[in-house]
From TrEMBL:
Family from the record: Belongs to the binding-protein-dependent transport system permease family.
Source organism, top-level taxon: Bacteria
Membrane topology: Multi-pass membrane protein
Pfam family, one: BPD_transp_1
Coarse class of the protein's main subcellular location: membrane
Keyword Kinase: no
Origin species: Herbiconiux moechotypicola
Membrane-spanning residues: 63-84, 91-114, 120-143, 218-239
Annotated PROSITE patterns: ABC_TM1
Name of the protein in its database record: ABC transporter permease
Residue intervals of the ABC transmembrane type-1 domain: 56-236
Length: 254
């Protein structure tokens, strides 16, 4: 068995065992909060794939917009920190405070200020910005001092150092942060949809299913969210490996 097959076999085996345990607990012990796999399949067929596709598309559209906005703000802020001396400490303090704000507490305020879909996009952007900001700054500052001194010796200022040395050094960290930001963007969008003012989305559908005590539909929506988020995460991971193959090689060598 190849190494790739071995890596794939273990998660598959865990998934099969988990599904079997889920089925046993739901049917044998009569746990109503867990809908058995046959009930989930029956509910999925009754709802129709279009129902889940409609809500998933709405959520991931908002998550994608929040992903772009949040990471764009993070990259711009990281650029300013790296080229303007003395602002890093203050910027990071503000970023930490923003990251520590509980979404449940600020959610209603965000809803009042932005309303509707904008609130979901804002919360999504808020969750993804901090990891990218920290990763890019840390990656850029890990550049070789000898390379920085070489650029400085040829008359290069902070912008030249950033363009020639620090940007390439920060690329693996930035791509790793973008990969991690994918599920965070989806979480922010779903929480924003829970706040109301939106007619479609996985968060809206989950809230409705919870209100109607539709356990099977609620689990199906959660599983669809996990599946599509995992797919997006894997796409980001593949892109990271393709764009920075030397980073993976360095990890293997280490």
């Amino acid at each position: 068995m190849t190494a790739t097959a071995t890596r794939l076999a273990l998660p598959l085996a865990v998934a099969v065992v988990a599904a079997g345990a889920w089925w046993a607990v739901a049917d044998l012990f009569g746990v109503t909060a867990l809908a058995s796999p046959p009930r989930l399949a029956e509910q999925f067929v009754a709802d129709g794939p279009g129902f889940y596709a409609l809500h998933a598309a709405a959520t991931f559209g908002r998550a994608a917009l929040g992903f772009v906005v949040g990471n764009g703000v993070a990259l711009l802020t990281a650029f300013l920190v790296l080229v303007i001396p003395g602002i890093e400490h203050h910027v990071l303090q503000i970023a930490v405070i923003a990251q520590c704000l509980p979404l449940v507490a600020i959610g209603p305020l965000v809803m009042i200020i932005f309303g509707g879909e904008a609130s979901a996009v804002f919360l999504s952007a808020l969750l993804v910005s901090y990891p990218t900001l920290i990763s890019v700054i840390a990656g850029a500052k890990s550049a070789s001092p000898a390379s920085i001194d070489l650029v400085r010796a040829y008359g290069g200022g902070r912008l030249s150092q950033l363009r020639i040395v620090r940007a390439m050094t920060a690329l693996p960290s930035m791509l790793s942060a973008l990969r991690i930001a994918v599920p965070a963007a989806v979480l922010g969008a779903v929480i924003g949809e829970y706040l109301g003012g939106i007619s479609t989305g996985l968060g809206v559908a989950m809230s409705s299913a919870q209100y109607q005590m539709g356990v099977a539909r609620l689990w199906n929506l959660a599983l669809v969210t996990v599946a599509v988020t995992l797919l997006a995460y894997l796409v980001a991971a593949v892109a990271e490996r393709m764009l920075t193959p030397w980073a993976g090689y360095a990890r293997v060598r280490a």
